[in-house]
Specification:
The chain is α/β, with parallel strands linked by helices and 366 residues long. 38% of the residues lie in helices and 22% in strands. It is globular, with a radius of gyration of 20 Å.
Length: 366
């Protein structure tokens, strides 16, 4: 079975109302997918991260630079496909862009291979568990949204069956954000994990101070406290902050994660298959983390393709702590079979259907 075409798709979903994190206002969510067609008629789906840039750039890079290299390549040569694309990033100043494209292609390859063999992706790779712990994620800022409103929102996710939730911070004065954390802890009770994501909005001193202020609310981890390029700053926060640090979901390639891990930058390695280089690269990052006895948490804030890819990667590694189940960014979740993702006692049972678990027939069901 060989690659015969790679077709980019750009999907946009309007937000019901504007909400925001410390870096961006969400009026619309944009998703970049690829459909990888094969000589046997099997089509694989993949996704690459496109927030922060025009998705048309990803489509152009795939059409102009990457597809010509991959057409006719045997699908079972997964490592060769990955390395062929990766080599294009070596002599380039577009490494992040190419890793996003590579992520989409790699996920699509695994989806197509697994569908052809009538297996779920995680079973083809070699699974570790048939269920994954997930956390309900949102907790953004909104117009006239009070800490009490935020608390009710997060308690609503607990009522749906989540045993862990994540909220945003870093977009308000420190005292206000501390009050928001306090309100959420009061609303969800003492037995639910509470994660806080600062989305790279703080400097080192403020991150440490914030961590000390929220320690009493039993925060499970503080995610992305400082800029993703500031690995030494991340290490300083991890060393001095009483709340364990997680990062960096926007990192790509095992070499970047190697630097984070070797510099003791995090207590939780936080990664995303649609950013880091696909499922193949995520497994290598998880293996490096395991060598340092670090758990992995998988980021997911996009489409059902992103969510499923991170679930399958998480189900393959023994050191998977959790996978993000975003309550706001759920593009194309309505395009897959109802009940595909079954939540019970905080865990999601892995889909047993082939590939990622679904085929999208109608892209209008955003």
């Amino acid at each position: 079975m060989k690659i015969t075409d790679i077709v980019p798709r750009i999907i946009r979903k309007k937000a019901a109302e504007a909400e925001w994190n410390p870096r961006i206002v969400w009026n619309e969510k944009t998703v970049f997918l690829v459909e990888l067609e094969t000589s046997e008629g099997v089509v694989g789906l993949g996704e690459g991260w496109c927030d922060g840039l025009s998705p048309e750039l990803l489509a152009y890079v795939i059409e102009k630079d990457l597809k010509p290299l991959l057409l006719g390549m045997p699908l079972d040569m997964t490592a060769r496909i990955w390395d062929t694309v990766f080599q294009k990033s070596i002599y380039s100043a577009k490494q992040g862009l190419i890793h996003a494209a590579l992520s989409a292609i790699d996920i699509a390859v695994w989806d197509a291979r697994s569908k052809a063999l009538n297996l779920p992706v995680y079973k083809l790779i070699g699974g570790h568990s048939d269920k994954v712990f997930v956390y309900g994620s949102a907790g953004l800022y909104g117009k006239d949204k009070t800490p009490e409103d935020l608390g009710r929102e997060m308690a609503g996710y607990v009522a749906k069956g989540f045993k862990a939730v994540k909220m945003k911070a870093g977009g308000a004065p420190l005292r206000e954000d501390v009050a928001r954390v306090a309100a959420v802890r009061e609303a969800i009770g003492p037995d639910i994990r509470l994660m806080v994501d600062a989305l790279y909005a703080l400097n080192v001193a403020d991150a440490i101070k914030f961590g000390r202020e929220i320690e009493k609310y039993d925060v499970y981890f503080l995610e992305a406290p400082v800029l993703p390029t500031d690995i030494l700053g991340l290490s300083a926060v991890n060393a001095r902050c009483p709340v364990p640090v997680a990062g960096n979901e926007f990192a790509y390639g095992r070499h970047t994660f190697r630097d984070i891990i070797e510099n003791n930058g995090v207590a939780f390695v936080h990664l995303d298959t649609i950013v880091c280089g696909g499922i193949s690269e995520a497994l290598k990052v998880a293996a490096m983390a395991s060598a340092r006895h670090l758990p992995c948490s998988f980021h997911s804030s996009s489409s059902v393709v992103c969510f499923a890819a991170n679930l399958h990667a998480g189900a393959c590694v023994a050191n998977c702590d959790s996978v993000e189940y975003h309550m706001l960014h759920q593009v194309l979740f309505d395009a897959v079979s109802p009940g595909l993702f079954e939540l019970k006692d905080g865990f999601l049972k892995m889909p047993q259907t082939p590939g990622l678990g679904f085929t999208i027939e109608d892209y209008s069901k955003v």
